[in-house]
Amino acid sequence: MRLGAVRSVVVAGLLVLGGAGPAGAWAGPEADVAYHGRVSLAHGRLKVWMVPQNEGPSGVPNATVRVRLSVDLADRQELAEGCARIGQREVVCETGELPEHGRGRHIGLSLGLRERPAEVVVRIDTWWNGGATDRNRGNNEHVVLALDTGDGYAF
After folding, report:
1. Please, what sign has the CA dihedral across residues 15, 18, 24, 28?
2. What would the mean pLDDT of 80-99 be, rounded to a whole number?
3. Within 13 Å and on the Cβ side, how many CA atoms surround 99?
4. For 10-141, where are the E strands, in sequence order?
5. pLDDT tens per residue, range 72-84
6. What DSSP element (H or E) covers 145?
7. Coil, strand, or helix at residue 137?
8. Containing H/E element for 150?
């Protein structure tokens, strides 16, 4: 096979596998996933409550939200259904179906922390979006500082 033919086969394969191509080529469904909720910290326990939603234009069969902390989680955790610990400071939860212009399931976490910090930085973002393209990442990436006061901080 000549070099030019090999390049054509490789490029064609990459286009099929990666979805790359000229402007206007199919890039999958588009959705606008967002998270709204609140965070509170009291006595070494962090509570996170959120509702994922999708502003469309396409529905998403399922997505995964990630919650990252600035401090270590306690060794033992009782997590909500559909949630899993993926590191010393990270938890992921499935959102359930996110219909176009609709909401997913309410997600509530009560996380024990290894120590009792005066504050925790909580980062919330989409870990997996069900294969959809999301051009507006500003409403699904949040950073919240929670002080050990028991007060709720909205995002």
Report:
1. positive
2. 97
3. 3
4. 33-42, 45-54, 64-69, 83-85, 90-94, 102-103, 107-112, 119-128
5. 999 999 999 999 9
6. strand 142-147
7. helix
8. none
